[in-house]
Amino acid sequence: MVVDFVERHPYWSIFLASLVVAGAVAVGFAVSKQRARERADQAQRDRLIAVTDAMSGAEFEQWFARILVASGFRQVKVCGGSGDRGADVMAVAPDGRRVVVQCKRQSISNRVGSAAIQRFAGTCRDIHGGEICMLVTNSFFTAGDGTQLARRLKITLVDRHALEMWAWTGKPTTGIVVG
Fold it and tell me: Which of the residues 9, 49, 130, 153 could staple to 164 if both were Cys, CB 3.0 to 4.6 A apart?
């Protein structure tokens, strides 16, 4: 039936085929535009640190992974969950070093203490081969021996203020990515 129509009406067949192709291209363009708009909206939401306050731990890990990607990190992989041995996100820094991240999504009043830093220090380099070890929180770190230990062990601490600046600018604040 289709072959018969094409043989009898070649010009109409070309016209109808052109309409179908044009329609498919228009639908593809509309879908692409919608997806770009959704990505832009997500990027805008990601710039606001307050969005992290209502997230689960897994959502916070995904959020921070998007921040890394937007900052030029490559091979970003979320690997958090039970059995992660302290590595929630792994990536390759723009300079090629292996990055291991432990994410701590907390309420603002609940600070990350020395015990979390010590646990992460025990796995970042020896277990995961991290060249840059980063502990990230949407809260703050307790003052005292934990932060001193992190400095001594070259573990980068990223608190709420530094994380907010990173999310907003797309660049780690000066001194965040250190070995």
Answer: 49
Maximum CA extent, the chain: 87
127-130 — which CB contacts under 8 Å span 24+ positions?
A: 127/85, 127/86, 127/87, 128/85, 128/86, 128/87, 128/90, 128/98, 128/100, 129/98, 129/100, 130/87, 130/98, 130/99, 130/100
- Between β-strands 155-158 and 132-137, what pairing exists: parallel, antiparallel or unpaired? parallel
Rounded to two decimals, the pTM is 0.71
**Which tens digit of pLDDT belongs to each residue from 26-58?**
888 888 888 777 766 666 655 578 888 889 999
Take residue 149 and report the two structure tokens written for it. 């230990």
Cα gap 49→58, rounded to integer Å = 16
The letter for the amino acid at 23 is G
